[in-house]
Structure formats: structure tokens, C-alpha cells
Amino acid sequence: xxxxxxxxxxxxxxxxxxxxxxxxxxxxxxxxxxxxxxxxxxxxxxxxxxxxxxxxxxxxxxxxxxxxxxxxxxxxxxxxxxxxxxxxxxxxxxxxxxxxxxxxxxxxxxxxxxxxxxxxxxxxxxxxxxxxxxxxxxxxxxxxxxxxxxxxxxxxxxxxxxxxxxxxxxxxxxxxxxxxxxxxxxxxxxxxxxxxxxxxxxxxxxxxxxxxxxxxxxxxxxxxxxxxxxxxxxxxxxxxxxxxxxxxxxxxxxxxxxxxxxxxxxx
Amino acid sequence: xxxxxxxxxxxxxxxxxxxxxxxxxxxxxxxxxxxxxxxxxxxxxxxxxxxxxxxxxxxxxxxxxxxxxxxxxxxxxxxxxxxxxxxxxxxxxxxxxxxxxxxxxxxxxxxxxxxxxxxxxxxxxxxxxxxxxxxxxxxxxxxxxxxxxxxxxxxxxxxxxxxxxxxxxxxxxxxxxxxxxxxxxxxxxxxxxxxxxxxxxxxxxxxxxxxxxxxxxxxxxxxxxxxxxxxxxxxxxxxxxxxxxxxxxxxxxxxxxxxxxxxxxxxxxxxxxxxxxxxxxxxxxxx
Lengths: 267, 287
Prior knowledge:
The complex is a heterodimer.
Chain A: H1 16-19, H2 22-38, H3 42-59, H4 63-70, H5 74-87, E1 93-97, E2 100-103, H6 104-130, H7 133-144, H8 154-184, H9 194-225, H10 244-266
Antiparallel strand pairs in A: 1-2
Helix pairs in contact in A: 2-6, 2-10, 3-6, 3-10, 4-6, 5-6, 7-8, 8-9
Chain B: E1 2-13, E2 21-32, E3 36-41, H1 47-54, E4 62-67, E5 70-71, H2 79-85, E6 86-89, H3 102-112, H4 117-130, H5 147-159, E7 165-169, H6 177-194, E8 197-202, H7 205-209, E9 214-219, E10 222-228, H8 229-233, H9 236-241, H10 248-258, H11 270-283
Parallel strand pairs in B: 3-8, 3-9, 6-7, 7-8
Antiparallel strand pairs in B: 1-2, 1-4, 4-5, 9-10
Helix pairs in contact in B: 3-4, 3-5, 4-5
């Protein structure tokens, strides 16, 4: 069922990773992503893998959940690997047949790309698994708050994100309900013909749009009734507090990053 | 013979995750043809999950469902036929409306059944009348209508498929008392004229007491009782202790009973209460 989609789903828990300050978690994720893409040696990827593995063990998130989040990108991975394999030239040819030529450079790049993307998804999904959407947007708001000085509406952007995230489960539930209701009226979603499937989308999309617009206008009215007027003078119920654990983990991330840069320079 | 039958039906949501929850727990039931069944239960008692099994929208985690004596999951490819035989009107069905005219929206179900143009036209007009929609509304956009009218369009959309079993999940939720009475009496009228089996889900006893011949009470994912309406109302105290509201008139008569004025039969509709009181007063020579 649609409900089982894991994209950005929070997995409640009380592990070390869960308790970290979300601001630090975002910064660490940023460092981690940079680390993956800067490193161009096998050892760099291994360092990245060790980093993910450490975070995964500390977070107590079942490995099943991580695999579940990687599964949807497998088609994209396959597609780009095929392209990389056949169209990267240079290096020693390993295999040649008529116009098809695979070189060792192509194999090297393809493997690097696959490992990088898998690590990237695994690492970033750990961030969303261990941090509730509210904490995440709160942290983003705080991290971006210096931009207020140059008139960027940081609070409004964060509020929009909060609302969008808040309504993802609601809309998924709504979609599920609409699909069930239309199935009850004989819509054939499991039909084999492509045309049937396309036709079946209309009775689902239209009610979904209608209800999304209705919800948006109801929410706007409710916010106005409570005199919402943006971020000015607003205080937070939950203050973000950083602890020693946060600094320690940031330190570890920087250490990993430094070693990646070091290895790069050595080569 | 029972038209719908379940055997040890169990359904577990999100199995294998921290959100795991058993919504229907070993339910065995038999619903007779032509019956008007009221299904009541508290929010989260599993009534909505249960009824979604009857037309094969949900596949049971374990247990079986029989329609006309046939296991509905015996042949997966025939599940659509089951949905044509068992019509399900969801809660707030007006949110499933999508066509640009009322006529087309009511015709959507019958069209999926691949009926002839003539047959579809006849059905649309017949059901529109039976839910109290006038001819001129048929060509309007459903999005221009009032909430109550939209609700009736959506119900007509399922009725037009002329299912053998019609299930309605809280068809009166969010309507004013007048709209509620109207829809309930239209459903009851439809039941009487077509002779189909009706399951009316509600959290209010008041709604179902007037029309249902049998009542199924769900509590905590299990069947609390399934019996004739009068029998169920003998257990008013247990039912109110589950947090379900008992019809006001039944409560009044319960108080009267405690004060020493008891009648042989259970009272749960105002109409019947009136008859009883008049009879009693006549007997005592007061009128």
C-alpha cells in the first residue's frame, strides 16, 4: 500500500543519534555528502562506508529500513550504470565487440558512482529516520537565520516546509482513501493495459487536488483566526540545545573529512 | 443462506513495524440476505476495517470471507466482480466526486461495469430520484452543490451499480439533523424497494435503531454482539459502558424501569415509545 512508502519517514526511537541536536545532524550530513564526492580513491569510499555503519549502529535503526529506502533508486542506478559503462571512453579496453567497447575507466567510474549513491541515500535517510520533520525544519530555520539580514524570509520558508511535511502523511492517507473509494466503484488499477491505467489516474488525481486546495484554504483561515503573522516575536516551545555528544560527533565527522582530504592530497 | 460470511477474519495493520496494530481480531459472522444491519462501535473499534474486507479492498491477514458461499479471494482476477456485488460507500463520500456533471459521476460505476448506454441512463435517473435529486441537478457540476447534495450524489454513484449488498460507512457524518433523517429514510426506502442487504455503519445507536433489523456491535477489534435489534438493546448498560451513546428514548425507559415502571419489550424508537405510553395510559383509564 502507498502508506508503506518510507521516503523521509521518521522512525521513532531514543538512541544516541536520535538525541543529537538536529542542527548538528544537518551539518554532519552536509560534511558527509561532501566527503563522498570529494574522495576519489577507494579508501575514501571505505571511510564513508565506515562512517555510515557507525551512525547506523548507534541509531539502532533496523538495516531492513535502510534497504527499503535504497530499493526505489535501483532502477535509476541500473540505468545510469549502463550509460556509464558504454559511453565512457579512455583507459584500457576490457571488452570489445563491434561498436560496443567497455574500458577499465568506465568500470571504475560506474562502481564508484553506485557505491557513492548507495552510501549517500543510506546516510541521508538515517538523518530523516532519526529526526522528526518538525525538529528538522526547526533546525533548518535556525541554521539559515543569518540570511534574515539580507531579507530572506527564512521563517516563512521554514513554515512552508513544516506545513508541506506535515501534510505528506495526510495526503498519502487521503490518496489511499480515494483509491479505495474509486476501486469500490470499479476502477481497475491492476489492469494490464497502459491506457486503462492512465484512465484510472483521473478519478484519483482530481479529488486529491480538490481536497488539497480545500485543506490549504481551511488551514489559512485557521491560521488567520489565531492571528498568525509570521516569525516576528515568536518564541519556541522546544528550544534546541547542544550537548557534548553533539560536539564530539561533529569532531568525528571533521576528522573523517580531514582524512579524506589528506588521502586525496597524497594521491 | 447467508450472503456474507466471515471465518476467523483477522487483519493487522503495518505488520512488522513499530506501528503494528490488530484492527480486526478473529471475527466470525454470518449476514443473511435482505437484512438491514446496523454496525456500531467506537472510533477505532475496527468497524471500518471490517467492512473494507467485505468487497475485497483489504485482504485479510488470516481468515476467510464468503460471498454467496464463495471464497472471494479464491480467484484474484474476479475481485472486481465482488466489488460490483458489494457496493461500499465510504465516509465523506463526496470527496471522491470528480466528473464535471452529476450525471456523469453517478454513471461512473455502472460504466465500469460495462453496461449498455440505455441501462446506464435508466439506472442514473432511477437512483437520482431515489436519493431525492431532481432532474435539473443532473447536468450541474457536482462542485456547485451543497454538502448534503454532494453526499447524495456520491451515495447514488454506488447505488447505481445496484449491488446485492450495500454498505454505508457513516453516511450521515457531518450533516445537520434534517439532512441526516432524509438520507437515512432514503436508504431505508431503497432497502425496502430493492430487497438488497444493507449494512449501515455508525457510531450512534440513535441512527441505526430506527431502521436496522439486526445490530452488530464492535468493540476493541472484536465482535461484542450480533443480534436482533431488540435483543441488543437489552444490554444498554454494557453498551453505554463501552462509551457508545444509547438512544435518548432508550435511556428514558431505562430510568423508568429502575423506578419500577417496566415494559415487556425493549424501547428504542420514539414512535414505539409513544404507542406504548398511549396503550399504558388507556389501560389505566387515564385517556
